[in-house]
Specification:
By secondary structure, the chain is mainly α. The protein is 62% helix and 0% strand.
Length: 175
């Protein structure tokens, strides 16, 4: 996979994670990087990277994009010929290895929308290792996974979550 293909893929993933049901446009990416990281990158530069006109990026640009997309900076290079996605080097921490494994799995299941989205959501979490351990613990308890999915996917739970997210928190009065 080339750097340009990876960047297009990451824009698609980011759009899905942000609930857009589409990829982020290059302009949206530029604005979000400015807003969330306080750094700038031009849309034309992104376009050159994605088209292959600029096959390499500077290290500061690589670090900026890696920070925004929450991927290892080493991911943002062209894969060498014969590279297999399931191979992960010993460099980097366990968390990076788990995230790359999850992203690779998400790529393999891109047509399974819910599974694809779930794997990417876990990979984007600050502690994806903990998320997987939590899932294992849930599955060890008979019937808990089914009960949780029923509660979390119910219309009542969704409405409660939206209400809680939009309602201001009232300070407690001292007595």
């Amino acid at each position: 996979m080339t750097l340009g293909e990876k960047l297009r893929y990451l824009r698609e993933v980011e759009g899905t994670i942000r609930g857009l049901d589409r990829e982020l446009s290059q302009i949206e990416l530029v604005r979000l990087i400015q807003k969330e990281l306080g750094k700038s990158i031009s849309q034309s530069y992104l376009s050159q990277i994605e088209s292959g006109a600029r096959p390499h990026v500077t290290n500061p640009t690589r670090m900026l994009l890696a920070r925004f997309f929450k991927v290892h900076p080493g991911y943002l290079v062209d894969d060498p010929e014969g590279f297999a996605n399931e191979l992960v080097s010993d460099l980097g921490g366990l968390e990076d290895k788990v995230d790359l494994w999850l992203i690779s799995g998400a790529e393999r299941f891109s047509r399974e929308v819910e599974l694809h989205h779930s794997l990417l959501t876990i990979a984007k979490h600050q502690d994806s290792r903990m998320c997987l351990i939590l899932l294992g613990t849930i599955l060890e308890n008979p019937g808990l996974a089914e009960r949780l999915i029923e509660v979390l996917k119910s219309p009542t739970a969704a409405a409660t979550t939206r209400t809680a997210a939009t309602s201001p928190v009232k300070p407690k009065r001292r007595q």
